[in-house]
Amino acid sequence: SKSKITIQDVLGLAVLIQTQQTVLAAVGEDAPLSCRLLETKDVQQVTWQKVLEKTERNIGSYSQYFGETVNPGFKDKVQFTEAGLQKNSIVIRNVTEQDAGCYLCLFNTYPDGALIAATCLEVYELHGPFIDVSRSNSPPGSDVTCSATGRPVPMVTLTVLHQNLSFSHYNTSTETNTNGTVTVTTKVLLSDLSSTQVGCSVSVDSAAPRELLVTVPEVKDSSDDGEELLEVQCLTDIFTSINLFNFDTVQPHTFVLTNQYFNQTMFLLLSFTSLMSQI
């Protein structure tokens, strides 16, 4: 029977191969895996395998004679991005939780046999950040809420950019969803009523954080009947998904900002003076 190759076994054989020990990918993203042979060898074939509980499953291989071959079970999942005998790369498309695990690249050489290296794929899920802002009358200020949903549990951090302002009533809550993800919500009260910028950063494990910067609006008593006019500015960089804010009237002179996830990179400036005149 075929014996299972452990990751510990592979580590002792991988000194001649350059690869990443760990690759992080979000659900729905593509995960690149790559191996490079550091010494010139007579390589006959390069093979990729996925490590299962009791064995390894062949994903595909490349040889000079047969070219690229992807096994039927991985046809729609794996693609060669660099087919070579000294360096070989594949990409795992549209990553799911089932794709998590360790992968082997084997350089089958003559006369040395197989040189093996391992890369372990860690899959995470992250949605957000989502920011809500509402006006608080007692105590006066702005309630700012930032939330994110992910797996494993995401970390949510709110920061204020104005030097003379600070948060109060800072609290964080978590909720486990039926699909196994966890929603983390952080809520603070900004005591100052003037306009200021607030940032929210969310992250999972060691993945790069996603950040959102919004300008908390200032109340302006500039209308004849005393209606509060709110102006919102949302700033982001090219790597951040933006929340598109809409106003819902809750009671006279109180407006709650709700969000709808808008996955497009842009600079967003919303002025609601004309909107208020129509309500």
Quick tags:
single chain, mainly beta, Immunoglobulin-like, 2 domains, 9-stranded mixed β-sheet, 5-stranded antiparallel β-sheet, 2 helices, 4% helix, elongated, Ig-like domain-containing protein, disulfide bond
What does this structure look like?
With 279 residues, the protein is mainly beta. It folds into 2 domains: 7-124, Immunoglobulin-like; 126-278, Immunoglobulin-like (Sandwich). The protein is built from 2 helices and 20 strands. The chain has helices at 7-11, 273-278; strands spanning 17-18, 22-26, 31-37, 43-51, 56-63, 67-70, 78-82, 87-92, 101-109, 113-137, 140-151, 155-160, 167-176, 182-190, 196-203, 210-216, 231-235, 242-251, 254-262, 268-271. Strands 2, 4, 5, 6, 9, 10, 11, 13 and 14 form a 9-stranded mixed beta sheet that branches. Strands 12-15-16-17-20 form a 5-stranded antiparallel beta sheet. Strands 1-3-8-7 form a 4-stranded antiparallel beta sheet, with no helix packed on it. Strand 13 and strand 14 (182-190) form a beta hairpin. The longest helix is centred in the last third of the chain and has 6 residues, at 273-278. The radius of gyration is 26 Å and the shape is elongated. The model is unreliable at 1-9 and 221-279 (pLDDT under 50). GO terms for molecular function: cell-cell adhesion mediator activity. Residues 14-105 form the Ig-like domain. It is found in: Membrane. Residues 1-25 form the signal peptide. One of its GO terms (cellular component) is neuronal cell body.
